[in-house]
Amino acid sequence: MYLILCTCPNKSGGLNTFAFLLNTFTLNNIITIQDAVIVPLLLVVAYFIATRIKNKHIKEHAYYKYFRIGLFVKIFAGLAFALIYLFYYGGGDTVYYFWGTGSTVKMLGKDIPTFFKILGGNHSLEVFSMFDRTTGWPTYFRDPNSFAVCRFNVPFYLLGLGSFLGNTIVMNLFLYFGIWRFYKMLVELYPSNEKWLAYAVFFIPSVVFWSSGILKDGWTLTAILIIYTNIYCIFIKKERTWANVLWLLLWGYILVSIRPFMFYVAIGSSLIWIGFYYLHRIKSTFLRVIALPLVMLVIWLSGLGIFVQTSSQANTRYGSVDAMLETAWIIQDDLKKDYYGGNTFDIGTFEPTIPGVIKKAPQAIVAGLFRPFIWEGEGILMFFSGLENLFLLFFFLFVLFKRKGLGFFTRVYKDPFVLSIFIMTITFAFFIGLTTANFGSLVRYVIPVKLLFVVVLILIRKGMESNSNGLQQSS
């Protein structure tokens, strides 16, 4: 099965096959006796770091009681993910990302200039020719979006002492701080909902599981949350420090390197937050109505400028709107050829044009929010995803009923932040439902959708109170 995956035309063709055959014999040696020392040592380090941070802040901020448990839920989810993929699925992408990182690290010992070229995103044949038996051949080198994970993972591979499980622990320790900052922002905005928001950010099972392995998904989720957090710090709290600006630029680069369309949606929805935040600060209803077209124009021009400036960093599949539409059409057309086996879904055929994809919006959004349904998909992980989606659907219908339908959307519009993440959620769900042909990919891609959608539902259900940042919110 994995030989078929490695030779899939969407990856790097024969290069993947060669790397797979070369590395398969080492699969059973990924976890070694060294892990019996490395894993407990790193867990102790993580425990002391978490305990010190918790104890330092909990007197002033009671919500720090969630810091340590949130971290260890993520770490143990990462270890569970690694073991399930090794011993139940026999490897998979997470192993290839780890091996690709290892090959890159070994290049440091062979040729330092080439090592830094790789870290800088050089994917030329000249650079690839430098890999040999002493370094190993990275599987996803010719796929820039996939190999970006290997590049960004290098520091955590080193800090994890070259251990697969150690790498997983250190990576999750680092990524968790970005997730925690997002939670802190939510608590600042909505201080009366800290418990329910903790459930949304730290304890949704599929979000924690899929974002904790060595995959794209942990990086993209963290990048989206950090972008939102730094937009808040820079434009709303007005903490325009170099650190906030640099973090925004760094994580924007990481996101556009791994999944460009997520970057575009995250930035676009962040601009909506900023625009409507300042619009809502205008006291006069008449002036707000007059200013609305100008705000929308500024948002549109800003988004267009960012798209133009960053599209060169995205690969050709996402470098333009036409390319993204064509990619969506190709993926759905491939579905008819049964490349993916039985674990697929079909929202129907469409033309790769804007009117063509808009017609498929309802099916795509439902797929992105609530599929797989409990009777769809194959395997135990798909069953649990379906069960979780069933709870999410019931929760949405419950909140919709409680707010009497139209009241739901009225409350969304009244709060700039909720409006922003609701638009992000619907847009993400639309793109993912449109461009994903199998449930295995769908359940991973939608983790930002689930987290943010649950945040929206909690804030609308529990109520939104005024906070120290002057947001106009409903009670």
CA-to-CA gap between the ends? 54 Å
Shape: globular
Task: Describe the largest sheet.
Answer: none
The chain-level mean pLDDT equals: 81
Our Rg estimate from Cα atoms comes to 22 Å
Oligomerization: single chain
Which runs of at least 5 residues are low in confidence (pLDDT < 50)?
A: 1-26, 335-341, 466-475
Our estimate of the beta-strand percent is: under 5%
How many strands? 0
Domain count: the total is 2
Tally of alpha and pi helices: 23
Order of helices and strands: HHHHHHHHHHHHHHHHHHHHHHH
What percent of the residues sit in helical stretches (DSSP H or I)?
over 70%
Q: Which class do the helix and strand fractions yield?
A: mainly alpha
What's a concise summary of this model?
The chain has 475 residues and is mostly helical. Helix content is 71%, strand content 0%.
Structure description:
The chain has 475 residues and is mainly alpha-helical. Helix content is 71%, strand content 0%. It contains 23 helices and no strands. It has helices at 2-6, 14-23, 35-57, 67-87, 93-110, 112-119, 125-128, 144-159, 164-189, 194-202, 205-210, 216-236, 242-258, 260-280, 285-310, 321-336, 354-358, 361-370, 380-402, 406-414, 416-435, 439-445, 447-462. α12 runs parallel beside α14. The longest helix has 26 residues, at 164-189. The chain is globular. Residues 1-26, 335-341 and 466-475 have low confidence and may be disordered.
